[in-house]
Predict the 3D structure of the following.
Amino acid sequence: MNPKETAKSYDELAAHWNGEHFNRKNGILQHQRALRFAKSKALAIDIGCGSSGRIIDLLIAEGFDVEGLDISPRMIELARKRHPEQTFYRSDICDWVFPRKYDFISAWDSIWHAPLGSHEAILLKLCAALNEDGILIFTSGGLDRPDAGCNSFMGTPLYHAALGIPQLLKIIDSAGCICRHLEYDQYPELHIYLIVQKAERGGAGNVGRGDLACTGKPHPV
């Protein structure tokens, strides 16, 4: 699937994410863990923000000025209705240029819908958009090597791709960032999330030991 097809699929699913039956706790504990690493809480952005607004609500409650980005016109329409005072951008993250730098970037269950060949550039872009000590949280497939495929959610086709853990960590290191936490949070499902921090000026980005929970068992939050 190309990005335009993904946008169409999410247009069809927007009402589900905005509805009463959507699990609004999804990803919240993980974001609360990421927020413990945040040294500044000025500006944040939710990449692939969708229509639920739950992550934006959390970041607003933490004191951030929050923006959102999504490729789906319907998702953005519903997001703006839920948060009329926030700034939203409708664009493809593959092509979008960050207008400023951020203290916190969330890309929860979003960038893995981009074409596999774009993933390295996207991750480098996200890391470059962080302020010093800024935090990035994102999800990926808990794989050992790159892979991609298409499946169905509620009858709607969705493409997923992942670079694999070794490649993700190499890119994070090359971008001058440090992996603070990596966890299989839905084990045995191959769903991982990473918490990444921009290294201080003059410091070397390195994977290090950090707070890696890579044993296959979820780390307590």
Q: What stands out?
A: Confidence is low (pLDDT under 50) at residues 204-221.
